[in-house]
Amino acid sequence: MSEALTRVEVRARAKIIDADVHPWINGDIKGLKKYLSRDWWAHFDGRYVLPNHWLRPPLARASSNRIDAMTPSGGEPGSDPVFMKEQHLDKHNISHAILSSIQAGKLAAIPTANEAVALATAFNEYFLNEFITVDDRYKLAMVVAAHDPQAAATEIRRIGHLPNVVAVYMPLLNILMGQKHYYPIYEAAESLRLPILIHPTGTEGGFPTAVAFAGGTPSTYIERHTNFPEIGMSSINSMIFEGVFYRFPGLKLLAAEKAESIAKRGLSFAELSNPETKYLERLLAGEIQWAMQRMFGQYDAIADLALPSELIPQPKAGAGTFIAPSEPQRGSCPLR
Fold first, then answer.
1. Does one domain contain both 133 and 274?
2. How far apart are CA 118 and CA 71, in angstroms?
3. Number of domains observed in the structure of the chain
4. How many helices and strands in the chain, by DSSP H and E?
5. pLDDT of the residue at 301
6. Taking burial as the number of CB atoms within 10 A of a residue's CB, which of 15, 16, 38, 175 is the most buried?
7. Helix (H) or strand (E) holding 168
8. Helix residue spans in the chain (DSSP H)
9. Are 304 and 335 in contact (CB under 8 A)?
């Protein structure tokens, strides 16, 4: 009879997929020089740093980059693929590390489409050459600039077939995800069986082109951070009711940091915020829970509606998705 494994031994043997690894490029745009054409480098001369949101985390250096992960050479956390491999992948038995760049997410703050497209390609080339070649466990969520959906689709088809490209990271603009603007991106991602990844970018509510928050602009970091699930809610609502998952039945969506409750996100920062927000611990623990229950009750009511048949797109041939049934009935709600 084999000896039962302890919990520690089970964890030691388990292979872990870390789906939320954020690599960093020292120097920001300056660090991309090698992967920008001479003309584009000259164009960006003097603009070497992508913009930061004014509302910063209440952490050391006003950054979520962990000080204990600074590289031996003094580089930013996540900037050295060899050090990351040793400190994170090897130490924690990581079998796959999905790279999604928060720096690249700042492309949503750029109002000029061709600039965002050029930088997206440079980001992808950087990580393909500087990270993917170091260790096969690194997998890339390639970034696209949704400002120009046709150019984004071209970028997906350019590198989306590579074995270590596993998702399409799409920094959200202030355009709901169900709108036709994004269709070329969805079509390209679906054709290569790549899921669309959305993740907070650090630009939300702070720039004209970036996704906005409902009701207005938050005045504190804790408000902004706690509101992230609101963006996921509006994005998924839009995709469902505008029929995206019917038009693209093979499309998959990964919504990172978009589904946690208000209470969970708020409490995680209550102790770090200024003294005026201490009362949130009591408020978030009770009254918000009641409000969330009422909200979900409203969604049950929405799901019971019978939508007019003209609002229900006809599906393509092929399998359904995790959201929509594969054989919708005309005149019925697509949520059923």
1. no
2. 28
3. 2
4. 12, 6
5. 40
6. 175
7. strand 165-169
8. 7-13, 38-43, 81-84, 102-105, 113-130, 149-159, 183-191, 221-226, 228-241, 244-247, 262-270, 280-303
9. no
How far apart are the C-alpha atoms of 110 and 198, rounded to whole Å? 17
Same domain flag for 273 and 204: no
- Residue range 47-68: mean pLDDT, rounded: 82
Q: How many angstroms separate the most distant Cα atoms in the chain?
A: 70
Task: Tell me the residue type at 18.
Answer: D
Domain that holds residue 194: 7-259
* DSSP letter for each residue of 83-115: HHIIIIIITTTEEEEEE--HHHHGGGG---HHH
198, 253 Cβ separation under 8 angstroms: yes
Question: In this structure, are 198 and 277 located in the same domain?
Answer: no
Could you give the count of Cα atoms lying within 13 Å of 320 in the half-sphere of its Cβ? 12
DSSP letter string, 313-325: PPPPSS---SSS-
The SS3 of residue 20 is strand
Q: Alpha-carbon distance 138 to 80, whole Å?
A: 13
Q: Which helix (H) or strand (E) holds 287?
A: helix 280-303
Res 176 pLDDT > 90: yes
Burial 30-58 (b: 16+ CB within 10 A, else e): ebbeebbeeebbeebeeeeebeebebebe
Instruction: Estimate to the nearest angstrom the gap between the alpha carbon of 241 and the chain centroid.
Output: 21
Tokens 């050090």 found at: 83
For the four alpha carbons of 255, 260, 262 and 265, in that order, the dihedral sign comes to negative
Identify the bridge partners of residue 18 per DSSP, sorted by sequence position: 97
Same domain flag for 213 and 294 = no
Residue 314 lies in a domain: no
Are 251 and 269 contained in the same domain? no
List, for residues 205-229, the tens digit of each pLDDT value. Answer: 999 999 999 889 899 888 888 888 8
Contacts of 285 (CB under 8 A, 6+ apart): 263, 267
Burial-class residue 154 by CB neighbours within 10 Å (0-12, 13-18, 19+).
Answer: middle
